[in-house]
Amino acid sequence: MRVLRVAAAQVGGIQSTERREQVVERLLALLEQAAADHCRLVVFPELTLTTFFPRTFYGDQADVDAWFETAVPGPETAPLFVAARRLGVAFHLGYAELVRQEGRVRRYNTAILTDETGAIVGKYRKIHLPGHARRLPDAPFQHLEKRYFDVGDLGFRVWEALGGTMGMCICNDRRWPETWRVLGLQGAEMVVLGYNTPEENIHYREPPHLRMFSHRLSIQAGAYQNATWVVAAAKSGLEDGHRLIAGSAIVSPTGEIVAEASTEGDELVIHDCDLDFGADLRRTMFDFARHRRPEHYGLITSAASYRPSTFQDG
Ligand code: ING
């Protein structure tokens, strides 16, 4: 058995007035609490340092860029890395990354994974960007990830860390089976992710209970169909008057939710994950080498769709 005690660190709403230093204080409290509970990995949510700013249209790029980090660790986030090293706890952190690549500024919805010394061992940039690029004047709020972020350029990858094979994805990625299969094909034994999921659908009337249903369905299916653990941490609750779903959870390779948040605030969801637990499934039901038939899957990568989108976004 390779048991890894993990905490999904749910973070309650971050208001647009909250400074990064204040947020980091909250994250440090969760990290200390997790270390006291003998956790070796703490998974923070997507865009953990700020409010979910894609809900707001900004006409001035400088107002958008104020939400981005130009260096992690940086002055406000360094205390997290120092504490992680002191406590011997690895962590996953989602944040907005502004970087210069080949002379151009790029903006990514990014997540990093550290080891127990606080060294960054993996980085992922969100590939499935939901929402829209143009302001929707009649919407109750915006979802401008397609406007504010570039599509991630690092692919879906895994890293050997914490005694296992770790994968990462971010929020909307969990709704796409391709995410999970590409990680599964690389032997992911645990996939960690953060999410900020608005409770309300801005495009049509969607009963609120379906938001939690599709969230659970996505991570449970991803876990089971690739025989991997999933640790999903929400930014949740009220942010500037808008609600984000909670439901941070840890899912076993059998697809069962083994631990789940019960509040909408800052909360640790902890479980002892045996990284060998998916071995039987991978040896039988999901023995990819014996059962998959990629010669019949060509459509999946040959085009995004065979029908044009009808969404008016540009
Ligand atoms: N949030 C949401 C998510 O995928 C969303 C956006 C919600 C898209 C529900 C479609 C349906 O959980 C982010 N940040 O991707």
Shape: globular
Low-confidence stretches: none
- Give the biggest sheet: 13 strands, mixed
Q: Give me the Rg, rounded.
A: 19 Å
**Count of strand segments:** 13
Element-by-element helix/strand order: EHEHHEEEHEEHEHEEEEEHHH
Question: What does the oligomeric state look like here?
Answer: single chain
* Bound compounds: D-[(amino)carbonyl]phenylalanine
Helix content: 10-25%
What structural class should be given to the helix and strand makeup? alpha/beta
Total helices: the number is: 9
Average pLDDT over all residues: 98
Strand content: 25-35%
Distance between the termini: 52 Å
List the helices and strands and how they pair.
Blueprint lengths: L2 E10 L7 H17 L4 E3 L17 H5 L12 H10 L2 E12 L2 E11 L5 E6 L19 H4 L9 E4 L2 E7 L6 H9 L4 E6 L13 H17 L3 E11 L2 E3 L4 E3 L5 E4 L6 E8 L4 H5 L4 H4 L6 H5 L12
Parallel strand pairs: 1-2, 1-9, 2-3, 7-8, 8-9
Antiparallel strand pairs: 1-13, 3-4, 4-5, 6-7, 9-10, 9-11, 11-12
Helix pairs in contact: 1-3, 5-6
The structure holds D-[(amino)carbonyl]phenylalanine.
D-[(amino)carbonyl]phenylalanine binds next to loops.
